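Lecture 7 notes: from sequence to structure.

We start with a single chain of 100 residues. Read the sequence below before looking at the structure.
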Amino acid sequence: MKTRIHVIAPLVLAALAAAGSAQAQVGQAGRLLASNCFQCHGTNGKGGFDAINGKSVGEIYTKLKEFQAGKEGNGIMAKHALGYTDAQMVALDKWLSTQR
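Now the structure, written as tokens:
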């Protein structure tokens, strides 16, 4: 029984570390992407023309997709949204949802 624990415990710890690292990478990517938003939306999305921090997960992503599709006009946000991939929008959405 002790041998099993000695074999399984390191595997479990490695899996947890990898998961934490992946989450940290998404967080860092989202934070970096959000740095493009500060001029209009304030630091970390807190203020400016329209606060975008603390929205529910998926809300920012959905809005960016609407901008990409032209459903929200042809303004500056439509231009910004066209520059993001889906993965970048997901990372941005997840990170901004954690900002309070």
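The CA atoms of residues 19 and 75 lie 38 Å apart. Keep this in mind for problem set 3.
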